[in-house]
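Homework help board

Subject: predicted structure for assignment chain

Our instructor gave us this sequence and asked us to write out the predicted structure in C-alpha coordinate form, then describe one feature. I got the C-alpha coordinates but I'm not sure how to describe them. Can anyone check?
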Amino acid sequence: MKSLIFKKDGLNKLSASYIPEKLPSREEHRLEIFNTVIGFIEGKLPLKAIVLNGPSGSGKTVTVKKASEQVLNYCNQKGIKIEYRHLNTRFASSDFTLAQMIALSLMPNIPGRGYSSKELLFTIFDYLEKSGKSFLLVLDDFDSFLSGVRSRFFTDLLKISEEYEGRVKVILILIGIEDVSKKVKDSWATSFFWRIGRSFKPYSAEEISVILKDRVELSFNENSVDDSLIYLMGRMTERFGYGSARYGIELLLTSGLNASYEGSSKVVAEHVREAQYRIESIITPADLKTLFSQDPEIHRLVERLIRVFESCEEPFVDFKTLEEHGVRTRDSGVMERLKRLHLEGLLDYNPSRKELALIGMPLRLLQQAFD
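My C-alpha coordinate output:
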Protein backbone atom coordinates (compact mmCIF):
# COMPACT_ATOMS: atom_id res chain seq x y z
CA MET A 1 0.00 0.00 0.00
CA LYS A 2 1.38 3.38 -1.02
CA SER A 3 2.12 5.74 1.87
CA LEU A 4 0.19 9.01 1.95
CA ILE A 5 3.11 10.66 3.71
CA PHE A 6 6.44 9.05 2.81
CA LYS A 7 8.10 8.58 -0.55
CA LYS A 8 9.33 5.16 -1.57
CA ASP A 9 12.49 4.50 0.47
CA GLY A 10 11.78 7.77 2.32
CA LEU A 11 12.15 6.23 5.76
CA ASN A 12 15.69 5.11 4.92
CA LYS A 13 16.62 8.75 4.29
CA LEU A 14 15.57 9.59 7.83
CA SER A 15 17.75 6.89 9.38
CA ALA A 16 20.88 7.60 11.42
CA SER A 17 23.05 5.76 8.87
CA TYR A 18 21.94 7.82 5.86
CA ILE A 19 24.55 10.17 4.41
CA PRO A 20 22.87 13.03 2.51
CA GLU A 21 24.29 14.65 -0.61
CA LYS A 22 24.20 18.10 0.98
CA LEU A 23 25.62 19.02 4.37
CA PRO A 24 24.08 22.38 5.32
CA SER A 25 26.40 24.47 7.53
CA ARG A 26 29.11 21.78 7.34
CA GLU A 27 30.42 22.02 3.76
CA GLU A 28 33.44 24.08 4.82
CA HIS A 29 34.23 21.48 7.52
CA ARG A 30 33.98 18.69 4.93
CA LEU A 31 36.29 20.51 2.52
CA GLU A 32 38.90 21.17 5.22
CA ILE A 33 38.88 17.52 6.32
CA PHE A 34 39.19 16.35 2.70
CA ASN A 35 42.08 18.69 1.93
CA THR A 36 43.89 17.74 5.13
CA VAL A 37 43.59 13.98 4.50
CA ILE A 38 44.73 14.36 0.89
CA GLY A 39 47.67 16.42 2.14
CA PHE A 40 48.67 13.53 4.42
CA ILE A 41 48.23 10.91 1.69
CA GLU A 42 50.28 12.85 -0.85
CA GLY A 43 52.97 13.68 1.71
CA LYS A 44 52.42 17.42 1.62
CA LEU A 45 51.81 17.49 5.37
CA PRO A 46 53.61 15.71 8.23
CA LEU A 47 51.81 12.66 9.62
CA LYS A 48 49.23 13.72 12.18
CA ALA A 49 46.04 12.44 13.80
CA ILE A 50 43.13 14.70 12.87
CA VAL A 51 41.09 15.50 15.97
CA LEU A 52 37.43 16.54 15.79
CA ASN A 53 35.31 17.33 18.81
CA GLY A 54 31.93 18.91 19.46
CA PRO A 55 28.51 18.19 20.96
CA SER A 56 26.52 15.11 20.03
CA GLY A 57 24.47 15.68 16.90
CA SER A 58 26.63 18.55 15.63
CA GLY A 59 27.45 16.76 12.37
CA LYS A 60 30.92 15.34 13.10
CA THR A 61 30.32 11.76 11.98
CA VAL A 62 28.30 12.52 8.85
CA THR A 63 30.80 15.19 7.78
CA VAL A 64 33.74 12.80 8.18
CA LYS A 65 31.89 10.07 6.26
CA LYS A 66 31.10 12.50 3.45
CA ALA A 67 34.70 13.75 3.33
CA SER A 68 35.95 10.13 3.36
CA GLU A 69 33.72 9.30 0.37
CA GLN A 70 35.35 12.18 -1.46
CA VAL A 71 38.84 10.94 -0.45
CA LEU A 72 38.09 7.46 -1.83
CA ASN A 73 36.85 8.91 -5.12
CA TYR A 74 39.97 11.08 -5.39
CA CYS A 75 42.28 8.11 -4.68
CA ASN A 76 40.44 5.98 -7.23
CA GLN A 77 40.92 8.66 -9.88
CA LYS A 78 44.62 9.07 -9.02
CA GLY A 79 45.30 5.33 -8.80
CA ILE A 80 46.20 5.54 -5.10
CA LYS A 81 45.54 2.29 -3.22
CA ILE A 82 43.82 2.92 0.09
CA GLU A 83 41.82 1.09 2.74
CA TYR A 84 39.14 2.99 4.68
CA ARG A 85 37.41 1.96 7.89
CA HIS A 86 35.07 3.97 10.13
CA LEU A 87 34.79 2.20 13.50
CA ASN A 88 32.87 3.16 16.63
CA THR A 89 35.06 2.55 19.66
CA ARG A 90 32.43 3.16 22.33
CA PHE A 91 32.09 -0.55 23.10
CA ALA A 92 35.79 -1.45 22.93
CA SER A 93 36.72 -2.49 26.46
CA SER A 94 40.52 -2.59 26.15
CA ASP A 95 43.45 -1.89 23.87
CA PHE A 96 43.27 -5.51 22.76
CA THR A 97 39.59 -5.40 21.74
CA LEU A 98 40.17 -2.15 19.86
CA ALA A 99 43.20 -3.52 18.01
CA GLN A 100 41.24 -6.70 17.31
CA MET A 101 38.33 -4.65 15.94
CA ILE A 102 40.65 -2.85 13.52
CA ALA A 103 42.50 -6.02 12.50
CA LEU A 104 39.30 -7.97 11.82
CA SER A 105 37.92 -5.11 9.72
CA LEU A 106 40.96 -5.51 7.42
CA MET A 107 41.65 -9.25 7.75
CA PRO A 108 38.42 -11.11 8.62
CA ASN A 109 40.21 -14.47 8.82
CA ILE A 110 42.82 -13.46 11.37
CA PRO A 111 42.68 -15.69 14.51
CA GLY A 112 40.75 -14.10 17.35
CA ARG A 113 43.25 -15.25 19.96
CA GLY A 114 46.99 -15.63 20.35
CA TYR A 115 47.96 -12.00 19.85
CA SER A 116 48.57 -9.09 22.17
CA SER A 117 47.23 -5.67 21.20
CA LYS A 118 50.71 -4.57 20.10
CA GLU A 119 51.19 -7.71 18.01
CA LEU A 120 47.85 -7.06 16.31
CA LEU A 121 49.02 -3.56 15.40
CA PHE A 122 52.23 -4.96 13.88
CA THR A 123 50.10 -7.45 11.93
CA ILE A 124 47.97 -4.57 10.60
CA PHE A 125 51.08 -2.67 9.46
CA ASP A 126 52.53 -5.83 7.86
CA TYR A 127 49.28 -6.30 5.93
CA LEU A 128 49.31 -2.69 4.72
CA GLU A 129 52.98 -2.90 3.70
CA LYS A 130 52.45 -6.08 1.68
CA SER A 131 49.32 -4.75 -0.02
CA GLY A 132 50.94 -1.37 -0.76
CA LYS A 133 47.93 0.48 0.60
CA SER A 134 47.50 3.58 2.70
CA PHE A 135 44.99 3.35 5.56
CA LEU A 136 42.39 5.98 6.43
CA LEU A 137 41.15 4.97 9.88
CA VAL A 138 38.33 6.85 11.61
CA LEU A 139 37.80 6.08 15.30
CA ASP A 140 34.46 7.46 16.44
CA ASP A 141 33.56 8.10 20.10
CA PHE A 142 37.26 7.80 20.85
CA ASP A 143 36.94 10.02 23.91
CA SER A 144 34.54 7.45 25.41
CA PHE A 145 37.10 4.72 24.82
CA LEU A 146 39.90 6.70 26.48
CA SER A 147 37.65 7.57 29.42
CA GLY A 148 36.79 3.93 30.07
CA VAL A 149 40.18 2.23 29.85
CA ARG A 150 43.79 2.79 30.84
CA SER A 151 45.08 2.89 27.29
CA ARG A 152 48.46 2.87 25.57
CA PHE A 153 46.87 2.24 22.20
CA PHE A 154 47.59 5.62 20.68
CA THR A 155 51.18 5.70 21.95
CA ASP A 156 51.84 2.16 20.64
CA LEU A 157 50.30 3.04 17.28
CA LEU A 158 52.50 6.09 16.83
CA LYS A 159 55.67 4.22 17.82
CA ILE A 160 54.92 1.38 15.42
CA SER A 161 54.11 3.84 12.62
CA GLU A 162 57.58 5.33 13.05
CA GLU A 163 59.12 1.88 12.44
CA TYR A 164 57.24 1.66 9.13
CA GLU A 165 57.86 5.29 8.16
CA GLY A 166 58.10 5.73 4.41
CA ARG A 167 56.61 2.26 3.80
CA VAL A 168 53.12 2.46 5.39
CA LYS A 169 50.94 5.53 5.59
CA VAL A 170 48.18 5.58 8.23
CA ILE A 171 45.86 8.59 8.47
CA LEU A 172 43.88 8.77 11.70
CA ILE A 173 40.71 10.76 12.34
CA LEU A 174 39.68 10.77 16.00
CA ILE A 175 36.12 11.88 16.80
CA GLY A 176 34.79 12.72 20.25
CA ILE A 177 32.47 14.97 22.16
CA GLU A 178 35.46 15.96 24.29
CA ASP A 179 38.91 16.86 22.99
CA VAL A 180 40.71 13.52 22.58
CA SER A 181 44.15 15.11 22.83
CA LYS A 182 43.50 16.10 26.45
CA LYS A 183 42.87 12.46 27.39
CA VAL A 184 46.15 11.05 26.07
CA LYS A 185 48.53 10.56 29.02
CA ASP A 186 51.86 10.75 27.18
CA SER A 187 52.62 14.41 26.61
CA TRP A 188 55.04 13.69 23.74
CA ALA A 189 52.19 12.18 21.70
CA THR A 190 50.20 15.42 21.66
CA SER A 191 52.53 16.83 18.99
CA PHE A 192 50.93 14.40 16.53
CA PHE A 193 47.46 15.91 16.87
CA TRP A 194 46.04 18.13 14.15
CA ARG A 195 42.91 20.16 14.82
CA ILE A 196 40.85 21.48 11.94
CA GLY A 197 40.20 25.20 12.11
CA ARG A 198 36.41 25.01 12.16
CA SER A 199 34.87 23.71 15.38
CA PHE A 200 31.62 21.77 15.44
CA LYS A 201 28.98 23.73 17.36
CA PRO A 202 25.30 23.00 18.04
CA TYR A 203 23.01 23.88 15.15
CA SER A 204 20.74 26.90 15.48
CA ALA A 205 16.98 26.68 14.83
CA GLU A 206 17.54 28.18 11.39
CA GLU A 207 20.33 25.71 10.54
CA ILE A 208 18.23 22.75 11.74
CA SER A 209 15.33 24.02 9.62
CA VAL A 210 17.55 23.93 6.50
CA ILE A 211 18.63 20.35 7.32
CA LEU A 212 15.05 19.24 7.94
CA LYS A 213 13.77 20.92 4.80
CA ASP A 214 16.28 18.91 2.79
CA ARG A 215 15.19 15.67 4.48
CA VAL A 216 11.52 16.53 3.87
CA GLU A 217 12.23 16.91 0.14
CA LEU A 218 14.01 13.55 0.12
CA SER A 219 11.60 11.59 2.31
CA PHE A 220 8.08 13.04 2.20
CA ASN A 221 5.48 13.35 -0.52
CA GLU A 222 4.97 16.84 -1.88
CA ASN A 223 3.04 19.27 0.36
CA SER A 224 3.09 16.83 3.30
CA VAL A 225 5.07 19.11 5.65
CA ASP A 226 4.71 22.91 5.67
CA ASP A 227 7.72 25.18 6.18
CA SER A 228 6.13 26.57 9.36
CA LEU A 229 6.22 23.08 10.90
CA ILE A 230 9.84 22.63 9.85
CA TYR A 231 10.71 25.85 11.67
CA LEU A 232 8.70 24.70 14.71
CA MET A 233 10.82 21.52 14.81
CA GLY A 234 13.93 23.68 14.44
CA ARG A 235 12.90 25.74 17.46
CA MET A 236 12.16 22.60 19.49
CA THR A 237 15.52 21.13 18.54
CA GLU A 238 17.46 24.25 19.47
CA ARG A 239 15.75 24.48 22.86
CA PHE A 240 15.33 20.87 23.95
CA GLY A 241 17.66 18.91 21.66
CA TYR A 242 20.56 21.30 22.32
CA GLY A 243 20.99 21.89 18.60
CA SER A 244 21.41 18.20 17.75
CA ALA A 245 20.56 17.26 14.16
CA ARG A 246 19.78 13.73 15.39
CA TYR A 247 17.08 15.10 17.67
CA GLY A 248 15.56 17.16 14.86
CA ILE A 249 15.53 14.26 12.39
CA GLU A 250 14.00 11.95 15.02
CA LEU A 251 11.32 14.58 15.63
CA LEU A 252 10.62 14.80 11.90
CA LEU A 253 10.49 11.00 11.50
CA THR A 254 8.18 10.48 14.48
CA SER A 255 5.88 13.32 13.36
CA GLY A 256 5.58 11.68 9.94
CA LEU A 257 4.87 8.28 11.48
CA ASN A 258 2.15 9.84 13.67
CA ALA A 259 0.48 11.27 10.57
CA SER A 260 0.92 7.98 8.71
CA TYR A 261 -0.70 5.96 11.53
CA GLU A 262 -3.73 8.26 11.33
CA GLY A 263 -3.96 7.82 7.57
CA SER A 264 -3.33 11.52 7.06
CA SER A 265 -1.67 12.92 3.94
CA LYS A 266 -0.29 15.90 5.86
CA VAL A 267 1.70 16.44 9.04
CA VAL A 268 0.06 18.96 11.37
CA ALA A 269 1.26 20.72 14.52
CA GLU A 270 -0.40 18.17 16.81
CA HIS A 271 1.61 15.37 15.17
CA VAL A 272 4.80 17.29 15.97
CA ARG A 273 3.75 17.92 19.58
CA GLU A 274 2.84 14.24 19.98
CA ALA A 275 6.26 13.31 18.59
CA GLN A 276 8.09 15.57 21.01
CA TYR A 277 6.06 14.29 23.95
CA ARG A 278 6.95 10.73 22.95
CA ILE A 279 10.66 11.56 22.72
CA GLU A 280 10.67 13.39 26.07
CA SER A 281 8.02 14.80 28.37
CA ILE A 282 9.05 18.40 28.94
CA ILE A 283 5.99 19.28 31.02
CA THR A 284 3.00 17.17 32.11
CA PRO A 285 -0.64 17.97 32.98
CA ALA A 286 0.29 17.37 36.65
CA ASP A 287 3.06 19.98 36.37
CA LEU A 288 0.56 22.43 34.92
CA LYS A 289 -1.92 21.86 37.72
CA THR A 290 0.83 22.69 40.21
CA LEU A 291 1.47 25.93 38.31
CA PHE A 292 -2.25 26.73 38.36
CA SER A 293 -2.39 26.28 42.13
CA GLN A 294 0.54 28.68 42.52
CA ASP A 295 -0.88 31.35 40.21
CA PRO A 296 -4.60 31.33 39.29
CA GLU A 297 -3.89 33.94 36.58
CA ILE A 298 -1.78 31.38 34.71
CA HIS A 299 -4.82 29.07 34.83
CA ARG A 300 -7.00 31.74 33.20
CA LEU A 301 -4.30 32.61 30.65
CA VAL A 302 -3.84 28.98 29.54
CA GLU A 303 -7.61 28.61 29.26
CA ARG A 304 -7.64 31.46 26.74
CA LEU A 305 -4.63 30.02 24.93
CA ILE A 306 -6.38 26.69 24.51
CA ARG A 307 -9.22 28.43 22.65
CA VAL A 308 -6.62 30.10 20.41
CA PHE A 309 -4.82 26.83 19.61
CA GLU A 310 -8.11 25.03 18.99
CA SER A 311 -9.15 27.62 16.41
CA CYS A 312 -5.80 27.97 14.57
CA GLU A 313 -4.34 25.37 12.23
CA GLU A 314 -0.99 27.14 11.95
CA PRO A 315 1.63 26.13 14.56
CA PHE A 316 2.57 29.75 15.29
CA VAL A 317 -0.01 32.30 16.41
CA ASP A 318 0.79 35.98 15.95
CA PHE A 319 0.23 38.55 18.68
CA LYS A 320 -2.65 40.16 16.77
CA THR A 321 -4.59 36.88 16.84
CA LEU A 322 -3.82 36.49 20.55
CA GLU A 323 -5.24 39.97 21.19
CA GLU A 324 -8.41 39.02 19.31
CA HIS A 325 -8.86 36.10 21.71
CA GLY A 326 -8.41 38.24 24.81
CA VAL A 327 -4.71 37.53 25.43
CA ARG A 328 -3.35 41.03 26.07
CA THR A 329 0.25 40.71 24.92
CA ARG A 330 1.02 44.33 25.86
CA ASP A 331 0.05 43.76 29.48
CA SER A 332 3.21 43.34 31.57
CA GLY A 333 1.58 40.69 33.80
CA VAL A 334 0.51 38.64 30.79
CA MET A 335 3.97 38.98 29.23
CA GLU A 336 5.64 37.74 32.41
CA ARG A 337 3.33 34.71 32.56
CA LEU A 338 3.95 33.91 28.89
CA LYS A 339 7.68 34.01 29.64
CA ARG A 340 7.11 31.70 32.62
CA LEU A 341 5.23 29.21 30.44
CA HIS A 342 8.06 29.48 27.90
CA LEU A 343 10.64 28.66 30.57
CA GLU A 344 8.51 25.75 31.81
CA GLY A 345 8.57 24.35 28.27
CA LEU A 346 4.87 24.63 27.44
CA LEU A 347 5.19 27.47 24.94
CA ASP A 348 7.63 28.78 22.39
CA TYR A 349 7.30 32.48 23.09
CA ASN A 350 9.15 34.60 20.53
CA PRO A 351 8.62 38.34 21.07
CA SER A 352 11.11 39.28 18.32
CA ARG A 353 8.84 37.61 15.75
CA LYS A 354 5.69 38.49 17.73
CA GLU A 355 4.40 34.94 17.73
CA LEU A 356 3.64 32.05 20.03
CA ALA A 357 3.42 28.26 19.65
CA LEU A 358 2.28 25.38 21.86
CA ILE A 359 5.18 22.93 22.08
CA GLY A 360 5.43 21.28 25.50
CA MET A 361 2.60 18.78 25.14
CA PRO A 362 -0.14 17.79 22.70
CA LEU A 363 -3.27 19.93 22.79
CA ARG A 364 -5.30 16.92 23.93
CA LEU A 365 -3.16 16.65 27.08
CA LEU A 366 -3.32 20.38 27.69
CA GLN A 367 -7.10 20.11 27.65
CA GLN A 368 -6.88 17.27 30.22
CA ALA A 369 -5.27 19.67 32.68
CA PHE A 370 -8.67 21.35 32.97
CA ASP A 371 -10.66 18.13 33.53
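Reply (TA_rk): Your C-alpha coordinates look well-formed. For the description, you could write something like this. The mean pLDDT is 91. That's the kind of observation they're looking for.
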